[in-house]
């Protein structure tokens, strides 16, 4: 029996990310549906979550905290303070680990709303976690011991790859892999549009575009070779690829992606400083 098999996992908020993580925990065998519990004031969200994960629903945030060891805060950043306010009184420093996945909210701000000495992890997963191919960066607070660090690792390893980073880099993780799926969907949609423009049926164009992005990503991950080297191997002298690359470089696409990750990172920092504007 693994060390985490007796752990119960609670969710404050039962939306998209709570569903992705709950399903990952069950699919990977880290937890059974029996060991999951969630609270969400939106009955429809809670109903969908229990159906997707096999977990239980709770009548309040405090009931979730009382029923589990790991409390995952999966509400929008603007709701974190309220959710913690409802949960804090039931939180026991010796027993619990709290994991927040809210974009931008610093460890110190979460710790300040819990009893002194609370073990807190701040994490940034992404939506491909729903398929077990997520990418998560997380930072551990001052009071996280080795056992609870292991709980956090197992949670996110159940839905993809994990990197432990200093908290100062979590906004950059948010800008890159947290928001990144949306950037890549835009590429897939645009490449498919290009195929349609050149006469391919929409369905074929989208399938070819999406498989191309997945294949290229796997080439980077599985060969360990530099993307520039892999790019060069596609690019014949005087051929088709260099004609397209030339246009992309002239359009500033490389700079646009750097700017996009920077803008998303800065927005994450802004969320953490309490500014919504
Ligand atoms: N969607 C994404 O790609 C990612 C989102 N995140 C973070 O995850 C968090 C959740 O995002 P999503 O799952 O996309 O949002 P969502 O909107 O799908 O789910 C949030 C849920 O919280 C519920 N809620 C509102 N007030 C509550 C309260 N007081 N107590 C308990 N539940 C409450 C809502 O009814 C809703 O069902 C956000 O903080 C976001 O920054 C992190 C990584 C990726
Ligand atoms: O757009 C957002 O704020 C959230 C955080 C990372 C992905 N989605």
TrEMBL record:
<feature type="binding site">
    <location>
        <begin position="12"/>
        <end position="17"/>
    </location>
    <ligand>
        <name>NADP(+)</name>
    </ligand>
</feature>
<dbReference type="Pfam" id="PF14748">
    <property type="entry name" value="P5CR_dimer"/>
</dbReference>
<keyword id="KW-0028">Amino-acid biosynthesis</keyword>
<comment type="similarity">
    <text>Belongs to the pyrroline-5-carboxylate reductase family.</text>
</comment>
<feature type="domain" description="Pyrroline-5-carboxylate reductase dimerisation">
    <location>
        <begin position="167"/>
        <end position="271"/>
    </location>
</feature>
<dbReference type="GO" id="GO:0004735">
    <property type="term" value="F:pyrroline-5-carboxylate reductase activity"/>
</dbReference>
<comment type="function">
    <text>Catalyzes the reduction of 1-pyrroline-5-carboxylate (PCA) to L-proline.</text>
</comment>
<keyword id="KW-0521">NADP</keyword>
<dbReference type="InterPro" id="IPR029036">
    <property type="entry name" value="P5CR_dimer"/>
</dbReference>
<dbReference type="InterPro" id="IPR000304">
    <property type="entry name" value="Pyrroline-COOH_reductase"/>
</dbReference>
<feature type="binding site">
    <location>
        <begin position="74"/>
        <end position="77"/>
    </location>
    <ligand>
        <name>NADP(+)</name>
    </ligand>
</feature>
<feature type="domain" description="Pyrroline-5-carboxylate reductase catalytic N-terminal">
    <location>
        <begin position="10"/>
        <end position="104"/>
    </location>
</feature>
<dbReference type="InterPro" id="IPR008927">
    <property type="entry name" value="6-PGluconate_DH-like_C_sf"/>
</dbReference>
<keyword id="KW-0963">Cytoplasm</keyword>
<dbReference type="GO" id="GO:0005737">
    <property type="term" value="C:cytoplasm"/>
</dbReference>
<dbReference type="Pfam" id="PF03807">
    <property type="entry name" value="F420_oxidored"/>
</dbReference>
<dbReference type="InterPro" id="IPR053790">
    <property type="entry name" value="P5CR-like_CS"/>
</dbReference>
<comment type="pathway">
    <text>Amino-acid biosynthesis; L-proline biosynthesis; L-proline from L-glutamate 5-semialdehyde: step 1/1.</text>
</comment>
<keyword id="KW-0560">Oxidoreductase</keyword>
<dbReference type="InterPro" id="IPR028939">
    <property type="entry name" value="P5C_Rdtase_cat_N"/>
</dbReference>
<protein>
    <recommendedName>
        <fullName>Pyrroline-5-carboxylate reductase</fullName>
        <ecNumber>1.5.1.2</ecNumber>
    </recommendedName>
</protein>
<dbReference type="InterPro" id="IPR036291">
    <property type="entry name" value="NAD(P)-bd_dom_sf"/>
</dbReference>
<dbReference type="GO" id="GO:0055129">
    <property type="term" value="P:L-proline biosynthetic process"/>
</dbReference>
<keyword id="KW-0641">Proline biosynthesis</keyword>
